[in-house]
Amino acid sequence: MKPITWIPLALLACLPALISASTPEQQPLLTNNLFESFVPSRIVAVGDFHGDFRNTVRVLNMAGIVDKTGELWIAEPGTFLVQTGDVVDRGPDTIALYAMMRNLTVQAEIAGGRVVRVLGNHEVMNMAADWRYVTKEDIASFGTAEKRRAEFGPEGLIGSDLRDLDIVTVVNGSVFVHGGVHPTWAEKGIDAINREARSAMAADNWRSNVFGGDGVLWYRGYAQDPEKQVCKLLRKALKSLGARRMVMGHTPQLDGHILSRCKGKAIVIDVGISSYYGGNCAALEIKDDVARALYCDGTRKLLS
Ligand SMILES: *[C@@H]1O[C@H](CO)[C@@H](O)[C@H](O)[C@H]1NC(C)=O
Ligand SMILES: *[C@@H]1O[C@H](CO)[C@@H](O)[C@H](O)[C@H]1NC(C)=O
Description:
Blueprint: H1 2-21, H2 32-36, E1 42-46, H3 53-62, E2 79-83, H4 94-110, E3 114-117, H5 121-127, H6 136-142, H7 145-151, H8 157-162, E4 168-171, E5 174-177, H9 183-186, H10 190-202, H11 221-224, H12 227-241, E6 245-248, E7 259-261, E8 266-268, E9 282-287, E10 290-295, E11 300-302
Parallel strand pairs: 1-2, 2-3, 5-6, 6-8
Antiparallel strand pairs: 1-9, 4-5, 7-8, 9-10, 10-11
Bound molecules: 2-acetamido-2-deoxy-beta-D-glucopyranose (2 copies).
């Protein structure tokens, strides 16, 4: 009997060491299938960080995800943190923000939670070496422009991590995407969209339609067009995707409020967290399938 009990115990004992020793890039991909078998008890979703570490930590701490330093995951088991892209550009804290997200991904899994990230158009721009929104301070933080380019390349710590991300995902019936999924994309299905993005990234094909102006990274219709027009489109897209709501970043809400449209079926969570956009502080919480906006002044607002 003894060996049978002792061997598994020994294995269990070294499991935490094995997990923390593996770098984030080696973590297995979290597929939609995995999410289906792991139902979250609470989802917190945050929009564009745009290079501002201090204000990002403030939001994540307010929502009960990290401690005040941003170093430690403090959320309850079963918590999913979803980030909808545009961590980079407009501010200088690229290195610290991506390091935090990679680190939290590891910590969350050990703590029985998950970090789910999708790409934004600014992640793609940086991989494509389009630096229109990169600040001087940001480049300096990498040492040289050449070093920054290498970091975002397929061999770089940041670049290899980003090339492992999806551009659209579904967690417990909510679609999370940077811009928005128009019905013409929704018809193809989540997996096909992500496959197209991955093969474009692998081929260094940044002009692919999947990254284009009508693609899911840039589309602003659900955030901006008249509801009379877009709620019908949204319903169609959600039906194709088998989801109940769509949560998006990308279109900054300069008043700092999370925007709910189409009776809560479209939620825009880019509240301008970065000081570039005013340093606003809000996160989306979904619990018992009810969506609420959480604010740093303590306000909580039901979204419907
Ligand atoms: C994450 O950050 C914590 C706190 O700074 C540190 O102890 C830990 O080693 C880091 N983990 C990884 C995987 O980088
Ligand atoms: C996940 O969805 C189910 C319904 O399918 C719901 O009962 C549950 O409360 C949802 N979880 C969260 C965190 O909202």
